[in-house]
Amino acid sequence: MQLNSGAFMADLVKTFFKAARLARKGRPISAALAMSDSVTPSVRPARKRAKKTKQASPRKTVPVLPRPAPGSFITQEFRCKHGTLAYKFYTPHGSARRRMPLVVMLHGCSQSAADFATGTGMNALADELGFLVLYPQQSQRANLARCWNWHNPAHQKRGRGEPAVIAALTRHAMALGRANPARIYVAGLSAGGAEAAILAAAYPDIFVAVGIHSGVAHEDVHSLQGAIAAMRGDTRPRPTGKVRRPLPTIVFHGDHDRVVHPSNAGAFLRDLERSNPGQLVTKSVSGRSQGGREFTRRIYRSMAGTVLLEDWTVHGGGHGWSGGRGGSFTDPAGPDASRAMLDFFLAIRRRP
């Protein structure tokens, strides 16, 4: 109810004069009733406010990123709460409607994304086999030599440091290229190989297989001094105790590597054995590459026939991408590591 004070005062004055006239005419009761009415304010019912209809808040729509054109090799910068990375992204020739696999390639120290793409020849292989390729690029602000900081505990765990940035960038690339989420792989050379091992352990929900070329195994190093010792072939006892089953892994290492000691390749088999995979079925194959390098390929399967580890030793190979050419840290004489990794990767997908 709302009180109209101006109307009330006007009514009160009128009533007062009316009562006075009634009193002069000898009608005191009528005068009293008239005055009693006047002391009750005249009120009017409040207007009913129209109920505001609750409007449904508009749905937040996730912006759809324009998919790069087939055959394009774009350069962009990615930012997230964990940091910033430049990257190159290759979309192969062919149908733009395909849900293709995605391979994340992590360069070694002193390399760039473009240099690594050239040396590994992954883009040409992507055209042939039909997969997307993401090349994250380390910043010199983060490391003067462009090495991934794989030896630093701040960059070794899920949700922290460089692994978190690369994982977020990988998700971005998956959306950008409409990648098949059941077929996401990661590979790297040297420091990039060590970083790939960390990513595979930290984000098994993203990646389904990993390739390490001339790298150091996950959990073996937690300081710069430890990294140098491992790269020199430190023979101190390795970690023991059961670990989670590693993702399917393919390893390449030259037995004449003078930068990362070849003994580091054996750590991946030890990690597999520590996960209690049951009895392993081993097959060993020897061969010679077209460039004249001999190699030994060992395949480790479960009793059910699932390939768990493939280990390539390149005899006479140094610290370079086997079979690579045109870029830095490549070994053109060796067996084709890029093709071997893709054959390994594309045979594996995440089960629904």
TrEMBL record:
Pfam families for the chain: Esterase_PHB
GO-annotated cellular components: extracellular region
Biased composition (Basic residues): 45-54
GO molecular function: hydrolase activity
Region Disordered: start-end pairs: 40-68
Keywords: Hydrolase, Signal
PANTHER family: BLL1128 PROTEIN, UNNAMED PRODUCT-RELATED
Name by which UniProt lists this protein: Esterase
Organism: Sphingobium xenophagum
